[in-house]
Amino acid sequence: MTQTDKELPLLTTVDDETYDELTTLIGQRIVHVALWEDSLADALAQQAVAPDQQTTFDLDLYLEDGVYFEMYGVACFDDPEAEAWRGLAQSGARLAAFVAGRAQLSDVAVDDDDGLVLVITTPDGRNCYLVVGAWLLAEWDELPDA
Length: 146
Known about the structure:
- By secondary structure, the protein is of the alpha+beta class.
- The protein has three helices and seven strands, in the order H-E-H-E-E-H-E-E-E-E.
- The protein has one domain (about 15-140).
- The chain is about 20% helix and about 35% strand.
- The protein starts with 15 loop residues before the first helix and ends in a 7-residue tail after the last strand.
C-alpha cells in the first residue's frame, strides 16, 4: 500500500482493502509531525485563512517503522463532539506535545462519508482525532529537521 510516486492521485475515501491495510499500522508510535504553513486547500480555493483562524491543516505524520502519512485538509479534535482545533501555531504545539508524550496510532476509523479518521493516544490516555480530507502513504528513511 505504500506509495512513493507523488504523482499518484490522493486517496479521499477508505474502502475495505485500504482499511485492512491501515489497521496494520495501529500501535506504532508517532515519532514526528510536520505541519505545513501553506495549505493545498487554501491554494485551490485561492484564498488564505489567517494562521490563527485555521481549522484544517496539511501535515505529515511519521510512524516509528518508517511509514508516514502525507495528509491534506486535516481537522484535529480532542474528541468527536468537540470543536476543531484552531490556529496553525497552537495546533502544531499540541501535536508536538503528543509526539513528546510518546503517542501512538491507536485506531483507524471511517466517518459517515468513508473518510479517514486517525486516532492518536498518549500512554496517559489523551486522544487526538485527525479527520483527514486526503492522504498518501510513503516511506521515510530519515526524519525531517524539526
